Amino acid sequence: MVEYDIFRPWLTLDPWQKKYIETDGHCFLLCGRQSGKTTAMSIKFGRKAATKDKRIILMIAETEKQAYNLFFKTLMYLEAEYPRQIKRGKNGPTKHLINLKNGSVIMCYAAGLDGSGLRTFTLTDLVIDEAAPMAKEIFVATMPMLSVTRGSMDLSSTPRGKGGFFYECSDDESLGKKVKKNWTRFYINAEDCPRHDKDYLDEQKRDMSELEYSQEYLAKFLDDVRRVFSNDLLIKVSKAIREEKVSEHKHYLGADLAGMGEDDNAFEVVKRMSKVMIRHVESETEKRTLEQAKKIIAYTEKYKLRGIGIDDGGPGWGVWSELMRDRTTKRKTIALNNASRQTDFEGKKSKTLMKVDMYMATLLEMRQGRLEILLDDEVMESLKSIQFEYVRKEGQKTILRVFGNNTHIAEALIRAVWMALKDKTLNIMAFC
Domains along the chain? Predict the structure, then answer.
């Protein structure tokens, strides 16, 4: 393995990164996870802005967090290589803007669900990261910005199944005449990328299904992997806003708890508006902390929660134990373990995992118009990352498997929805 300095990545670029940085015109980057695509884009457009006058560069991703990751890396490169080009003082860098002395400007914004908030700029360069899950409306909104200047667009992503604008920009043979010919394409899979450790990849291959590994690390578009929540569905149901004042409706909390050094904690609250309508009213994430139980107890007091759903496996066991000892939460907390299976009143085990049941129940409520989701970038990012595949192991029946690479909010939300659906004054039998 090559030793990389993550704070000065331009010193140890891979050959494909060097070639891409020197390539003009529309570019398409299909990359496995952690292959260096965002780094390469940040260097390319930082250099272009600093060395060419009056470039107007817009960097976008679906969420602000994703877009800012690219933007921050670009600023880090400029500070190291072209510090005298950066304007300072009142015109100095902000969270969304870098002004350079040669008249070039680099902007950074979240695209949101449909890109409607971006319909204002004229650009020389459009840079889109994590493009695979984006709705076509985003590209319809942004591509005309390049027309007058005859500008260029760079797209990059890890794939999310076959479908969508990003997929149509590939040269997959199944697309036929749909292929867009005027792109320079770069395909980088993890096994050919020197920055990956082989032992780590071998471990990932053992832990993942064949399809999941092929998509995430080998960067393959796959027919057999599909998203659970489509763009059209999310646009339709994402209409809820946070409560300024807690209402008298019945509220339920779902929590997804991070392990040591892993992911974020997620806390999602829904309320039952009527017998048939559920509304998502709060979403909060935080880095791993030892105060998860206290956080849930505080939510219980604020919302007068009728039910709390958590995974009592792994890191959730300690939190579950604390909630069972607290008088305000012990009769409201239900263990919703991803690996468990439901049992009906005749004592028969379901063939599907509880996790799959919760996802399918949430999906059904959305499709039937009975569930409204918060219009929130991070919530959308998590729901869009959820995919499914059918897995059949030798000698076993085919099963439905749900997975994703940014699941913490979605996992908390499906628990909150499940609690709201199953609440019959919290009859414990309903959850067995």
Answer: 9-216 (3.40.50.300), 231-431 (3.30.420.240)
